[in-house]
């Protein structure tokens, strides 16, 4: 079922197709995040129109609300939220470590309190897989532990636990229509990363995720980690860099052999008035846009840019109109999705590597903070 | 330019076409309200898809933010908000009386403080018309004073002022591509209403609005006022009942000879989890919908009802997802727009009057409060 066919390679950058029960996924691909079974402010029609193919949803959130059993009863996540194309769920691990009120980790799993109502819950690899089987995404994740990347002792311990949990996740998983990905951890230590990449690559996962990045390390550390990990992964399996997405992260990640990305950044920035653009990030609340009749980005052909002026968007933001979030979400997601589509074309004609510097130059002003902490929406 | 052609009549109910610079308006018509140049949570594409033809925007709000001069500079309201079909602006009078922090009325106009920043402003008939000329809607309103309907002395005074302001509005108005409507006032007193209807009908307005209803009077008082007013109005001019819109208000209004309606109710209810339906109003936050796989209304063919279950909508509401407001707004607006389209068909085949009782029976449970106070969004 879950064949990954490489169509083109240029250096370490790859173009491929991953077959899923909900259609073929062209990679590289950027996945919008629908944390609670909704990509914030957008309808499925919006997502189709802006060319989204893969959509991610969060196991931790859906387990707590509305509950994975309810989603299963409603026919699964695709049917519940009416997304007919491929879907991915994470393991819930990252949110347990970043969002839950308290957590107690042992070798068997994690006991935590819900950030919604303080109620106590427990995730184990088996539980995470059972929840993800109820949700029914095409691509699901092994349960993992994300460490502070700069804490070496903890990174070692979390990596070892992640490896044992990967084996247990594999054993627990029964649905044949879901591709279970293993997750590489290891903080920013090259040796740990190499150990983890080799171990996870040795297990029969149809795809491999790289976790524990964009969580507080520097960009250089992220790149060095990718430089260690991707050469150790098999060619015939897709690689997914979790929770990463600024435009420059996508360029750098694809150049280092990553195939799949997701991030809440485009929709989160949108609700905070910020727009990606090929000339740098814009804050549309800014008074300089008051009478600006240009679109957000003159080189963008999304619905928002085809239709509305910066002056109108600035008015909507100023007047606290919810439509602003919708229109900026459309633009920001389109920008990332289209950037990846463009890069796909460049790789296929063997012209990506030579364009990396100019692409980074063009899109490099979109990360205003040196190391954005990964956002959980 | 602003011809109104009657196509059919049944009793007092009418079907007609009002020609505007942005296309022909089929009446009866329900206009969604885009208070601040945005129908809350919806794109213009949504509005087109759900069959909206006329959209209303508020002079008071746009004057304060972003400013009518800015809108004019941006090419007018149609271009600014990208609504290509007919538009209507109110006079600003109602909001000055209901929203502004303080107000001082004299025979020349009203001085008031902005509800946004407390700054002092003054509206006169001439100023209201100048603002509306800057905004550039197809249908604009004479400046009027809306009284407490149960205060007879004030209603008389406000009516007389409204009449003088109607004459001044007519004199001030110069743009030939805008239809200026006069407004009938008079509270709930039949004599005042008759006096006002006759006076406004005697002036050369291409259309006539009925103001000061749905502001605290009973449904019976509203109906009796319409029963007095519409028979005194010329046949060849459209009649617009301002700020009214529950499903049953539309049925009752059309039966009494009204052609145009607007109300924030459908979009406001949507943001508070309530949906119109042909079996009564639903609050989709209700736990009874947790596992309900039906659409909001099985007889509705809007995007929301064609696509999503009550269980999913209830989850979105429960999880505070903004998409809930969008999807319920689509449904509620579609319900009113489709109801009016259906009634248009019934009038054309002479079968509306006989259906009024069953329509009221079907839609009558959608007004949960006996007299909803008119909402200003």
Task: Characterise this structure.
By secondary structure, the first copy, chain A, is α/β, with parallel strands linked by helices. Helices cover 41% and strands 17% of the residues of chain A. Chain A has helices at residues 44-49, 59-64, 68-73, 77-81, 93-98, 125-135, 152-172, 190-202, 219-229, 247-255, 265-271, 303-307, 310-318, 323-348, 352-363; strands at 4-10, 13-20, 23-27, 29-31, 55-57, 87-89, 103-105, 110-113, 120-123, 139-141, 179-184, 207-210, 239-241, 260-262, 274-275, 282-283. In chain A, the strands form five sheets. Chain A has a six-stranded parallel β-sheet with strand order 4-14-13-12-11-10. In chain A, strands 1-2-3 form a three-stranded antiparallel β-sheet. In chain A, strand 15 and strand 16 (282-283) form a beta hairpin. Chain A is globular, with a radius of gyration of 20 Å. The two termini of chain A are 32 Å apart. The relative contact order of chain A is 0.14. The model of chain A is unreliable at 369-376 (pLDDT under 50). Chain A binds chain B through residues 36-38, 40-45, 61, 65-66, 70, 73-74, 80-82, 290-291, 293, 303, 307-309, 311-312, 314-316, 318-319, 321-323, 325-327, and chain B through 36-38, 40-45, 61, 65-66, 70, 73-74, 80-82, 290-291, 293, 303, 307-309, 311-312, 314-316, 318-319, 321-323, 325-327.
Short characterization:
Two copies of one chain form a homodimer. By secondary structure, the first copy, chain A, is α/β, with parallel strands linked by helices. Chain A is built from 15 helices and 16 strands.
